[in-house]
Amino acid sequence: MSRNLKAFGSLQCLLRSTNKRYLPSVTWGFHKQATSYYSTQDGKSNSSDGSFKKYGFGLLAAFGALFAAYQFNVIPGLGKDDGTPSDGGKKRFKRPSKVFKYPKDSSSIPDKVPYLLIGGGTASFSAFRAIKSADPTAKVLVIGNEPFNPYMRPPLSKEMFYNEDRDLAKNLRFKQWNTSERSLFYEPDDFYTPLESLFPPTTPDQQEKEKESAKASSSDGKANVATTPGANYGGVTVVRGWQVTQLDTSKKVAILEDGKAIHFDKCLLATGRRRKICPFSSRILRQKH
């Protein structure tokens, strides 16, 4: 204890003489304690020149090493905390700045639909299966803010996370509890009806073309079969990358992010919710999370 007090006192004397404060202010108390502890009976303090030569350079080297470790983050948890988790030198996936949208223009989205499902998750998938079971010719429009068709989320953090076959995970497939493989998506892409087939555009020019094609087929003696099967037999289409910002249940209208209005007969709000993660002050805890 006496050596430490004497060393701190010597170092502080040097720093005071050069008018530089490289050490925190809390260490100045050691100087006072060292001075009083080593003061003589006549009130004159002992000289600290020899003490500095013995302990000063070692302390400066120690503080220099700690400063370097702090700057370059040599010791985990000691470096600067800039609020971003470390990736361990590995390249991390970056989300694209622009979200894929289908369709690209909201003018291709119909103005009126019989069934509107807001949200592209498991609830919407179960809902349109029930709707199609009750009404096979139903036309269902699903709106999701993700650029994917409805998929299963639990396997992302369970089966696919712990699966050692990375090629299987890259193909968005996983092994179930019975060791059988299946896709992460509930249904393949060809299960869904294209938007333009399920809800054909109703511009005057396109209506004239449809009438002409109907007359041509009737004059040839062929059955009048629509060129867009989804328009007669119904189906499910998914609008991806779009968000519903307003919903008026009294007027039965949903407003998209760009102001596009979609009227509906029946609507299901199945957006789910987003979990709230408390911020971590420690870099190590954020890395574990």
From TrEMBL:
Q: What GO molecular functions are on record for this protein? A: FAD binding; NAD(P)H oxidase H2O2-forming activity
Checking InterPro entries in the record gives: FAD-oxidoreductase/Apoptosis, FAD/NAD-bd_sf, FAD/NAD-binding_dom
Per its UniProt record, what SUPFAM superfamilies does this chain match? FAD/NAD(P)-binding domain
Give the region (Disordered) as residue ranges.
Answer: 197-230
Q: Which UniProt keywords apply?
A: FAD, Flavoprotein, Oxidoreductase
Q: Is Oxidoreductase there in the keyword field? A: yes
Superkingdom field = Eukaryota
One Pfam family per UniProt: Pyr_redox_2
Does this entry carry the keyword Metal-binding? no
Question: Boundaries of each FAD/NAD(P)-binding domain copy?
Answer: 116-279
Name its GO BP terms in alphabetical order: apoptotic process; mitochondrial respiratory chain complex assembly
This protein's GO CC annotations: mitochondrion
The name this protein carries in UniProt is Apoptosis-inducing factor 1, mitochondrial
The organism encoding this protein is: Cacopsylla melanoneura
State the taxonomy lineage: Eukaryota, Metazoa, Ecdysozoa, Arthropoda, Hexapoda
